[in-house]
Amino acid sequence: VVVSFSKEGYNRTYRLVEIPTGTSVYLSATLIETGISTTISATSGGTLSTGGASVQIPANGIVDSSGNTVTGDVEVNLTYFDPTSSENLQAFPGDFKGIDASGNVVRFETFGFINVELWQGDEPLQLAPGQTAEIVIPANSLGGTPPAEIPLWYYDQADGVWHQEGTATYDANTDSYKATVAHFTYWNVDMPYDTAYITGRVITADGEPVAWAQVLHEGVNYSGSSNVYTRSDGTFRIPVKANARAKVWARKGSTISSTVTVDTPAPGEEIDIGDLIIDAVPLVQITLTWGEKPSDLDSHLRGPLPDGSGNTYHVYYGDMGSLSSSPFAALDTDDTSSYGPEIITITKLTPGKYVYCIHNYSGQDEWPIENSEAKVTFLDLNSSWLYTYNVPSFNPDSTSNDVWRVIEFEVDSSGRISRIIPVNDFESATSSDDVCSQF
User: Fold this and answer.
1) Are 247 and 262 in contact (CB under 8 A)?
2) CA distances from 390 to 239, 337, 422 (A)
3) Are the C-beta atoms of residues 62 and 126 closer than 8 Å to each other?
4) Which of 223, 226, 283 minimizes the C-alpha distance to 249?
5) Collapsing DSSP states into helix, strand and coil, what is residue 432?
C-alpha cells in the first residue's frame, strides 16, 4: 500500500510498504515545511524561486481537475530538498529506486529534488495538455561531481513509484540542473548505481530473533537509502550502493538498535555485519559528521551513572557503552577515516548534568578542528526537539585547543531533558580520557 503523511504548511510525503498477512508494520516519516508559497496570475504566469531552485509557470497554461482553463489567482508552492541533509533524505517520497526509460527497476542516488504544487482554494491544479514548465534543481550530492546529463524522475502518488521522464542538463554557471516538465509533482535528478548487499540478523538482548523488524540504511558518502523487513528468523538482506560507505540500523515499533557504519562490497557481492540488537527505546541521538580533514574526530559523552552513586560515565571510542545495560548510552562506531557519522544513542536518562564534546584525535597539526566542517545534530525524541550545531570558525588558541565543547544538558527528576545549554567553545585535553573532564 501507499501511505501518505501530511500536515498543513508542510510537504506531503509517501511510503510504499508491504504488510505481511497477520503482522503489523511500523512506519515513520519526516515532513519538511513548504519552502516558499506565493500567488500568481494564471493568465500571465510567473517564476518562483527558493534555495537556488525555481519553476517557471507558463501564461494561460493551468487547468483544474476537470480540464478547464484556470483564470484568476493561483497559489504556487515550491520546496527544494538538499540531498546532503539527512532530514531531507528522510522526507524523500517512496524508496530510492524507480522505473527507468527502458522499463527496468533501478536503484539510484539523488543529486537534488523539488516539489511543486498549484492550488486554487482547496483544488489542486496542473499544467494544461501541451504546456510545459522549466524547472531548476541545484546540483548537490555526497556522491561527487555532477554528471553533464542526468535522468529526470517524477514521483507517481498513485503507485508510489518513481518513473523516469526525460533528462536534465547540468549548468556549470549556476551549479544546477535544468529541465522541461509537462506536469507538477515531486521531480528528482538521480543517477542509477551498482548494487551490493548488507546481510545480518536482528535479535533481542536475550538473543531471540526479531521477525518483521524494519532494517534501514542511509548512504554516508552518497545520497540514497533503502529499507527491508526481517524474515521470521530475524535475518535480512538490504541493497546498498557498491564500493561506498553506508550506515545501517534496525527498529521495531519504538525500539531501535545501534547504528553500524559499513564499507560496502563490490557490485553484486554482500557483506555480513552480524547481529543488530534491538531492545531499547532511544531517547536521545547525537550525530557527528565532518569533512575530509582531519581524518579522526571523536565523540565524547559524560553523564550521571544510573546507579544513584553520583558518579559519572564516559562514553567514547575507549568505552563504547551499552544501550540495554548501564550506562544505557552507546557510541555506534569509531570512525577514523573522515566524514563520520559517529552516533551516540541514549536509552535511559538519569537526573543530572550531561556534557557532549568533540576531540580532534588527529591533532591540530594535521588539521585544526575549527576548519573540520564538523556538524552535530542533537535529537530529543521525548519532545521531538532537533538542534544543529556547526563548529565555530574562530579558535582563540588553535595550537592547543583540540576539543570542541558542543553542549551541556540537564535532566530533571522525571527523566526528561529540562535544559539545553549550547556551549560552542574550545578547550584543550591532555589525552582522550581527559576530554569533557571539566564536568
Assistant:
1) yes
2) 32, 20, 11
3) yes
4) 226
5) helix
